[in-house]
Amino acid sequence: MNFFSNKKILIYGLGKSGLSTYKFLKNENNIYLYDDYYSKIKNKNIRKKIINFRKITNIKFDRIILSPGIDINKCKLSKFLKKNLKLIYSDLDVFYNFYKNDCITITGTNGKSTTCQLLFEVLSKQKFDVKLIGNIGIPVLSIKNVKKKTLFIIEASSYQLEYSRIFKSKYAVILNLSPDHLERHLTLNKYIDAKFKLLKNQSKGNFAFLNKNDLLTQRKLRFKKFKSKIIQVQTKEDFTNFKNIRNDYFLTETNKENLFFVLEILKKWKINKNLLFKAIENFKGLKYRQQTIYKKNNLTIINDSKSTSFASSISALKVNPNIFWLLGGQHKRNDKFNLSKRYFKNIRAFIYGRDVKFFNKELKGKIRYENFINLNHALKKIFMILKKNKNKPYTILFSPCAASFDSFNNFEERGFYFDKLINRYLYEK
C-alpha cells in the first residue's frame, strides 16, 4: 500500500486522468505537476503547482505517472523519460495498488465503449454494485463510494496499458485487433503487445476472454502462453438464438460481436435471464457510435463519429441500404479498406477534410466518390439528391474512418456538429 505513498511523484499530463491522479495522491505524497501546454491549463491553483521545465532534471523522483495522451517519443520531456523508464507508471497502476476489487477490463480496437456500457447496464439491472470507469470518459481514480463488493468495469486503451507496470485484472477482455494508433506505437506488433499486457500481468485463477475469430488475436496466442484461463469467444455464431431480441442496434457484425462477449462474460455470475434480455432489448448504445439519430419514411441517418479507421466502419456498410457514406479527416497510418466487392454498388462516398487524396486512393476503382471542401458541403449535396429521389430508401452514414483533429478537437465535437447540420437540413427539407 506504500508503493504510491510518501513518495516524490511527477505527474506528467494534466488532462482528466492527470488531474484525478493528482487529487487522489496529493495528501500523502510530495507531488510535482507538468504539462507540455501550460497555456491551456485554466485552473489557477493547478497552474501555480506546475514545475519549471529546467528544474525537472535536478529532482530525483520516486515515481513518474504519465497520462495516456503523452507520447514518450514526441513530448518535451522525451530524453528525461527515456532515462527514467523504470520509474514510469499509469493511473491504472495507482488504482490497482489501492483497490483490490474484482475488475472486468475491456480493450480491443473497436467496440470497447459499447461493450463496457452494455455490460454495465445488464449488471446494474441485476442489482450488482458495479462502476464503469476508464477510457470511456471517467478516470479510474475519480470514482467514489467504493465498497468491498464493488465490481469495476474498466475500458482500457492501448495508451493506458502501454505505460502500466503492475495493473492486474481478474477478468481481461480483448475484443478484436486491427492496425490502429501506429503513429504512436510505430509497429503493429508493439500495438498488439500493449493490448496483451492485460493477459501478461494476469495470474492463475484469472480469466481472459479472446475473440476466436480474430486473426491477429489467434496469431499472438500461437506464439505466447499465459497463466490465466483462456476463454475463446465464438463471435460468428448463428444469431437465430437471439431472434426474440428486437433491437436493430445489434444488426451490425460489430455490435453482434460485442453482445457475444457480454453473454460469455456474464456466465461467471448468476444472471436473471428475463432481466438480461430486457436490458439488451432496451439498449440504445452510446452517442456517436453507430447511433441512429433519425429514422422516418425512407430515410435513416446514422452518426458514427467515433469511427477513426476503415475497420470500424465496415459492419455498418454491410447492413444498410443505398448508403451515402460521409468520410474524411486525418487518416490512420497504414489503414486499409477491406470490404467485399458485393457491397460496392450499394455505396456512394462523399469525402471531405485534410486527407482527401488518401481516401481517393483507397476507394479508387471500388466505390463511386466525390470530394468536398468540408462536411457541410458534402451533406448539402446529399440532401439535394434526396429531394429528387423521395420514394427510394436511403441511409446517410456519417462514419469518418479518420481522426477528427484536422477540423475538431475530438470525435464528440465532430459528432455534435454533424447532429447540428442534420437538424438544419431536415428542417429545410
Q: Which features does this protein show?
A:
429 residues, alpha/beta, Rossmann fold, UDP-N-acetylmuramoyl-L-alanine:D-glutamate ligase, Protein-Tyrosine Phosphatase, Chain A, six-stranded parallel β-sheet, six-stranded mixed β-sheet, 16 strands, 34% helix, globular
Please give a structural write-up.
The protein is an alpha/beta fold. The chain folds into 3 domains: 8-89, Rossmann fold (3-Layer(aba) Sandwich), CATH 3.40.50; 92-281, Mur-like, catalytic domain (UDP-N-acetylmuramoyl-L-alanine:D-glutamate ligase, 3-Layer(aba) Sandwich); 291-428, Mur ligase, C-terminal domain (Protein-Tyrosine Phosphatase, Chain A), CATH 3.90.190.20. The protein is 34% helix and 18% strand. It contains 15 helices and 16 strands. It has helices at 16-25, 44-49, 78-83, 91-98, 112-125, 158-163, 182-185, 188-200, 215-223, 253-265, 273-281, 314-319, 356-363, 375-388, 411-428, and strands at residues 8-12, 30-34, 63-66, 88-89, 103-107, 130-134, 151-155, 171-174, 207-211, 229-233, 291-296, 299-303, 323-328, 347-352, 368-371, 394-398. α5 (112-125) packs across α11 (273-281) and α14 packs parallel to α15. It is globular. The mean pLDDT is 93.
